Amino acid sequence: MAATGYVVERLDTGALTEAQLGEWEGLHGRQSGVGNPFCAPDWVLEWYRSYVPDASRRHLLWVRDPDGGLAGVAPMHEQVVGPRRLPVGRRLVPVGYGLGTALELPQVLTTDEHARAVHHAVVARTRDAGADWAELSVARDQAWFEPGWVEDTTAQAPHYTHRAARACVVLPLAGTWDEVRGGLKRNLKESLRRGRNRLTRSGRDWQVRTLEGAEVDAAAVQRFFALHAARAGFAGTSSSHPDAYADPTGRALLERLVPRLADAKAASLVELVVDGEVVAVQLALHAAGTSYLHSSGLDPEYWQFSAVTLLQAEVVRSAVARGDRVVNFSPGPNVAKMRWSERVHVVDDFAYATGTRASGLRFLAFTQLAAARQYRHAVAVARSNSPRA
């Protein structure tokens, strides 16, 4: 079997040693291809602190290879699902999964060398962990769920299902900034040129600046929140952008986390400053040769200046200078992102179990409720983004 010799251990998130954290950080830095910033210890542990206060529901799985080296980290948590008054069942899912939070891309941390075996080992551990079922996010360029991972059992109702696909627009980086810029689509280059020209012709003093390290302080984070909320309240565009930080839990998470990430060179804030006032901001994350465009904010008065696009261009330029392999424009391809690239990085979600028929029925009930909720959400989003009569 692919997982032979791989050992899975559940760790206490409150008792991690400096040596273990160092191993985790080292594995995080060895990611190849499209790196995932959310697999870092800071993101995972802060997410647990914010959303899973009950430590008994945290399943931080440590996977060692046959030689004893750390080959994978799978941060999971137990979640009760279904209507609040009549829960359907219990599932085991990755951190960030099943909730709308700033941790946008749940995934098992591993390397290409160990990916298949690590995912097999994690499935073998979680399928029998006592929940009604488990779910896992698997990067398509690393592995795919294999039927054999749930078929070697005498359980009443073994099963696995492909639940969803999460696609991110990614821009591969090769050569200098001038070479990357020269390969961009004409409409994007025109948008960048037009935005700069409009700012210059306005007669205002303007600059794009990148805040790093200690510059990303509490005041900078609060400016980011304020501009993000202003962007969410802007009705003069065809796409809706809800305020992701209206929820105090998610807001507090970033208040604690972003300055610490910046100190570790894992985050930066790129700002457009006009006449001494910050009017737009882009949060960027950095990990393992990848820059990740997280959320942004904008004073609606500067919409016509393509402000966020200018900031994204600065993130790309800095990523080239840093030697990154790729820029990830986050999940959810749309027109604005596809102007940068038409290449996508896909992470697939699978559900699986080797339990009883009763557990299987609870899973089926949940999928029906989830399908209805997803349909209503899709209709609401499409209607909010559709032209008004």
From TrEMBL:
Kindly list the organism's lineage.
Bacteria, Bacillati, Actinomycetota, Actinomycetes, Kineosporiales
What name goes with this protein? BioF2-like acetyltransferase domain-containing protein
What is the top-level taxon of the source organism?
Answer: Bacteria
Residue ranges of the BioF2-like acetyltransferase domain?
Answer: 187-334
Q: Supply the Pfam families for this chain.
A: Acetyltransf_6
What is the scientific name of the source organism? Kineococcus radiotolerans (strain ATCC BAA-149 / DSM 14245 / SRS30216)
